[in-house]
Design a protein that fits this description.
511 residues; 3-stranded antiparallel β-sheet; alpha+beta; 4-stranded mixed β-sheet
Amino acid sequence: MFLLATVFLVVSIYLYIQWIYSHWKRSGLEQIEPDFIYGNIKEIALGKISSGEHFKNLYNEFKLKGLKHGGIYEFLTPSYIPTDLEVIKCILQKDFNHFMNHGDYVNEELDPLTGHLLALENEKWKKLRGKLTPTFTSGKMKMMFSTIAACTESLKDNLEEYAKIKDCVNIKDVLVKYTTDVIGSTAFGLECNSFEDPDSKFIEFGKKIFGTGRRNFNRMVTNNLPKCILNLIGYKRNEKSIEDFFMGLVKSMVEYREKNNVYRKDFMHLLLQLKNRGKVTNDESIFPNGDENGDHFISFNEVAAQCFVFFLAGFETSSTAMTFALYELSRNQEIQDKVREEMKTVTKKHNNKITYEGIMEMHYLDKVVNETLRLHPPLPVTGRRCNATYKVPNTDVIIQKGNKVKISILGVHRDPEYYPDPDTFDPERFNRENILQRPQFAFMPFGGGPRICIGERFGLLQIKVGLTSIISNFRVTLNEKTPQPITYMPKLIISGVKGGVWLNIHEVDEE
């Protein structure tokens, strides 16, 4: 009897899984046949390929068949992959209300650091987005500029050492220290001194957060278990040590500033204005003056969660983008010379200093950064979860509530339909004429629509300031330790180079 029951259970589970794997066929959508249990992500799960490359391959497979979309499975979860830019536009922008959420796990009570803008959903996301938007205007970026620029001094000094001893450097390690100093200074008001402190807590916890083991386990669990079960078992995305470090750090900063009425040109000041005044203002006060709106205050936990995601977003993505930019410039010396000449011309107009206005005048640098983000988007895939049954325009395909959507940013960015000879680094793709000839969503390194990355301006500013400090003072060439051709590291959500990008550093003045 027990044997029969066991056989019945096994057969039932098998048939149920096979029924799941017919989801897209039943919806009238062509699918790629899945592997049992793994679905269509076996290579990602086994660490054989990066998620960015894998979803690019899936995008290409549907595109080569002349399809505007197709279906796959991430383990047992049906995922929809659009290849048509009009469909992508509908999902990210036109029909945003059907695809408002990323589908991330949030539990603000048990895991307060998950209550950040990237993960929040529905009305909570809308309200917080509205509150935080004024903190990322061009005016606020200009306010923070001096704080960002100050972090380039240690970056320059560090690279000078490598130039003097004529030793190559894994440039990502250096750039992580720079972005850590910037984020620590602008988000927490701390002088991290990452270049002088080899045991920097920020770098230690940054690596801990982005460690592949825990991150991949989190992704697998939260993507495939219903939120009601995760809440029932009290699942936490963040380890206690990470939570204690960031919550404790923010608490000490908040208490110190409120007690001493400290003003500093940074993100923390703006968050404290929201916490205590319910709005962002241009003055130096973090305390109420009688005209506050009670609907716009944010809590201490919300302050901590936004600082946390600000650290997450800036720590890895900006250093990654700068790494790829320097890699491409090291391989294209004429382009490097041209951008250096622009930097020197512009900074000369501004008393040989890196200024906010000067960075805004560096149009060729802007092209270089955009072409880097096209060729190597740090976040090569963006996801949404359908929150209401949706009929794909001009088709009979229905996306059910709960289905996931995966948009291959890398696939679109390397699509020869929009970018001829797509693997070639060519900044002129981003001159005005070429931009106007491309569809709107052919370039989306920060996502798109209402849920586009709120920190886009800050990220670009941080990248451009860092690159200006490096390229105006040094020539970078590719060292033989850099594997050629480069391959992206598996098991990482954010693109990374397997084996690292190793560069030789030469002082420009010595040439």
